[in-house]
Amino acid sequence: METQYTPGTVVRSMRNKNLVIIVILIAILLLFGKVVGSSGIGKVIVTVSIEPISFFVYEIGGPYVEINYIVSEEEEFHEIVITSNMVSKVLSSDLIIITGHIAWEEELLMLISEEKEREVSGFSLDLMGDLRDQLILMNFPGTNELNIHGYWLYLPNALVIAKSVADKLGDIDPIHRDFYLNSYQMFRERIERLNNTILESIMDLGLYGTEVLAVTPPEQYILLSLGLNPSTILVHGELYSVSPSILQEARELLEKGKFEYIFISDLTKKKPIFEYIIELSRETGVPIIELRTLSMDGLYFLETLYTYNLGVIEGIGELEVNPSRDNWPEMVYISMIFVVIILILGLVFHIIKIMRG
Questions:
Q1: Is the residue at 250 inside a domain?
Q2: pLDDT tens digits, residue range 156-173?
Q3: Same domain, yes or no, for 238 and 166?
């Protein structure tokens, strides 16, 4: 019998007393941003291997950078084949930033190096390669295997990456070095405030350190930043497949009451494993909570993601195991209002920026 997905099983409620203040702060940040797709003479051209890394370039580079990406955030990162057209598009970049965990990234840098006749280190930033001793990479729970997927979403790592981007941009464009360093300092202060807000909220809810079940690797870094403990992760690789034995083990833990929630990401919903998770939730009565790992309608701010996710977590206390269809429109409505507020405020502040020259 075909599995039917009931709206409301995946919860995305927005309930957060701090949301208004944080949303306004996020909108103000747009003053220092740029419009997606805009370009200008004299800007530093930065190409990132995968779109999520754009977060950091937008934050630090502001109006002095033009950002391109090779793979969008909704594409499968690991299945890219390098083409001559791809190389030619990237060739004009002043800086290329890669995650360092995908084989084709390094291959692309070598090809660009040959074309430019320059050392790779002179025009690139390899996050895992260059920053390995500064990044915090977690092991998958109960193993010695490093989780190298989505590590940039972990707030301590975000600060390390942002500082490195600021230094690189300053080396390439020394005229605006102070701007890049000031942008990093402002970013650091905001992330520290955000972290304090998260911890305060999670502790008030009595959820700090709560063991939860995560489905895919990036969720580990999101959940840790949210003060939760993803003590079991179903998927360890990039193929989003899981063995029947692991699913059975997870089912047994859920039936024993080990976990109160199953956490998935917005990307997980696009994978075949999502159907298994829906069935697992129905069989055990444990609700699925959806977190975001993608940008929200093109807004490249880490605070946006975490504010949204914090709102989801704060809504947990009001959930039933299987919310009715009647509650579903309300959840979506609240989330949509949140996004619309950000978009409107962002537009207003961008207009102000243009008027100020």
A1: yes
A2: 999 999 999 999 999 999
A3: no
